[in-house]
Amino acid sequence: MTVKIGLVGTGTVGGGCIDILQKHKQDFQRHLGVDVELVRVCSRNPEQAAAHNVADIFTPDYRDIVNDPKIDIVVELIGGTTVARNVVLEALAAGKNVVTANKALMATHGQEVLDTAAAAGKEVAFEASVGGGIPIIDPLKHSLIANEIGTVMGIVNGTTNYMLTRMADNGMGYEDALKEAQANGFAEADPTADVEGFDAAAKIAILASIAFNSRVTLADVYTSGISQISPVDLEAARGMGYVVKLLAIAHRTPKGIDVRVHPTMIPATHQLATVNGVYNAIYVVGDAVGETMFFGAGAGSGPAASAVMGDVLEVARHVQQGVGPLVGCTCTDQLPILPVDELQMKYYIRFTVSDKLGVLAAMAGIFAQYNVSVHSVVQHSKKESTVDVVYVTHVAKESDIKAVIEEIAGLDDVLQGPPSLIRVEE
Ligand SMILES: NC(=O)C1=CN([C@@H]2O[C@H](COP(=O)(O)OP(=O)(O)OC[C@H]3O[C@@H](n4cnc5c(N)ncnc54)[C@H](OP(=O)(O)O)[C@@H]3O)[C@@H](O)[C@H]2O)C=CC1
Ligand SMILES: N[C@@H](CC=O)C(=O)O
Prior knowledge:
Blueprint: E1 2-8, H1 12-32, E2 35-42, H2 46-51, E3 58-59, H3 63-66, E4 73-76, H4 83-93, E5 97-100, H5 103-120, E6 124-125, H6 137-143, E7 149-155, H7 158-170, H8 174-183, H9 192-195, H10 198-212, E8 222-223, H11 231-239, E9 242-253, E10 256-267, E11 279-286, E12 290-297, H12 301-321, E13 344-354, H13 359-369, E14 374-381, E15 386-393, E16 396-397, H14 398-409, E17 420-424
Parallel strand pairs: 1-2, 1-4, 2-3, 4-5, 5-6, 8-10, 10-17
Antiparallel strand pairs: 7-9, 7-11, 9-10, 11-12, 13-15, 13-16, 13-17, 14-15
Helix pairs in contact: 1-12, 4-5, 5-10, 7-8, 13-14
C-alpha cells in the first residue's frame, strides 16, 4: 500500500520535507518497507513549489488537500494559530492523520486538536514542534515513560541562541544578529515570537504537558525574552564567569508546576553554557534514569524537516499496519501552575543612570527598603554623563525584585525604560 501525503506550506520546513522525500523515497521503501507518495502541495506562492519541482501538484487552496479522499496524512507547515488550526481540524474531521511542526498551535489549541484526533480515531504527531531536529517528544512519550520526570529545561529556541552567541562571541549588534538568524531560516515568520520568548514558551508548554502528564498551555508560562539584553550584559556576565542563555524551565514541585522562559545567567562550566549558535539542548531528569540531555540543531530547513519526516514515516507505518499511536497525549493529571512572583533566586539587574551624586545612594535605599541584599555592584562608564550600574543580588523573592525595579525606574535620574533583568541559576 502506498501512503499518500498532502503538504500544506512549502517554505523553509515544507521545502526541506519535499527535498527529503525526493532524495530518500526509495530508501524508505527499501529500509523501512514504507511506501509514501507526495500527491499534493499547497502554499500561497506557486514559485516555491516550482523551485522544488512539484509545480504539477500545487494548489493555492488547502481544502483541495484536506478534502482529497485519497490523502492519508496531511502535513501542516504554515505556522500560526488561525488558518493552521483550520487545516488541522478540518483534516482530522475528514479522516486524515496529521503531522505538524506548529508549536504555537499545539501549545494554544493542543487540547482541542488532540480531542478532535481522538474522536476521529486519527493520529497527530508533532515532534518538530520542539527542538527542531532533536528527538525529544518521542523519547518523553516512549523511552522515558517509566519515569516520574522532575525537570525539563533547556535551550529550545535556535534564533535567540544564535543571536546571543553572535553577540557574545563576535560583538555583533542585536539587529544584525537577528537578520542573520532570519536569513538562515531559523526565525518565525514574525520573529517577535522568538526574541520575546513566546516560541520557547510554547515549546516548554508542550514538553511540560508530556513530561508531567498535566496540560500546560502557552498562557501558563511566565515569559520574558532577550530584547532588553545588550552586549554590555553579555560582557558583564562573562567577566563574572557566566554565560547568558534564554532558558525554558519546567520543574515539578510538591506544590505544582514551575514553568517559565527568561534570559538566564548560568556558570560558564554548566552543560548548557557551551550549547551555541542554532544548537538546542534539553535536559531531562527522571526518577529512574537520572540526568539525560538531548542535543542538536534547533531550527533550520534540514533539521526541522528531519523531525517532520520522521513523524510522517511513523504515521505512515501505522496507516499501513492499521494501528494507532502507542501513547497519546491525554494529560490525565491537573497540577497547579505556580505563580512566578513566589520564585526565589539571584538576579542580575542593569540600569542606565545619570552620572550624578546621590543616584546610587537612592537606589541602594530602595534595595534595602525591600530587604533585597546585593552581592555586588559594578559601574561601567557608558558615555559622558551616563553610567551603567549592574547589581547582582543574593537570593531574593521575585515580587520584591519587581517592586525594586518599579521604584528605581521611577527615579528621575534613571534613564532607560525597563532595565536588563537576568535571573541567575547556579
Ligand atoms: N523554520 C524553522 O526552523 C522551524 C519551523 N518550525 C515550524 O514550522 C512551521 C513552518 O515554518 P517555516 O517553514 O519556517 O515557515 P515559512 O514562513 O518559511 O513557510 C510557511 C509556508 O506556509 C505558507 N502559508 C502561510 N500561510 C498560508 C495560508 N494561509 N495558506 C497556504 N499557505 C500558507 C507560506 O506561503 P507564502 O510563502 O506564500 O506565504 C509558506 O509556504 C511553523 O509552525 C514553524 O513554527 C518548526 C521547527 C523549526
Ligand atoms: N523559530 C524557531 C524555529 C524552530 O522551532 C527557533 O528559532 O527555534
